[in-house]
Design brief:
Gyrase A, domain 2; 4 helices; Ribosome_recyc_fac_dom; 6 strands; cytoplasm; Topoisomerase I, Chain A, domain 4; alpha+beta; RRF_sf; elongated; 16% strand
Length: 185
Amino acid sequence: MIDETIKDVRKKMASAIEFAKTDFSKVRTGRATPAMFNQLTAEYYGTPTPLQQLATFKSPEPRVMMITPFDRGCINEIEKAVRNSDLGVNPAVDGNAVRVVFPELTEDRRKEYIKIVRDKAEDAKVVIRNHRRSAMDVIKKAEKDGDIGEDDARRGEKQIEDETKKFTNQVDELLKAKEAELMEV
């Protein structure tokens, strides 16, 4: 029972880490990455379709992204989707592709992004701690009901605390790496 609870909480905490990684990848750094376009959709024959399904992404320079559609007919829709997004860029059709040039980040903007990333990291830690609390409640209830002994309950609680510490440290490492990436000029 304890092992099952720990395995379950470990899985939930790992999913919180994956969500944090995804959240961090959405925050713009000085480099253009395809992950910045993950949430964008363009109209393709009347259906909103994710850009990853409509085009390939190539970054010839650190601050430039070339989006080459598989179907040349949807190039204007892709350009419109990027222009209307919250990326703050002005795309241009360049032959058979959409060229997106990201402006250089100012020092103030970098610091603002760091604050955003810290908030996202804290959100991930809150989710991890909520999973810890839920697992602790399961163990305390099992101890109260007499399903497990006091020693087993303490051992289980210690293991859950260790897992929580491990996963919050992973969030801190991700945050540290993202901050370094943001401050890189």
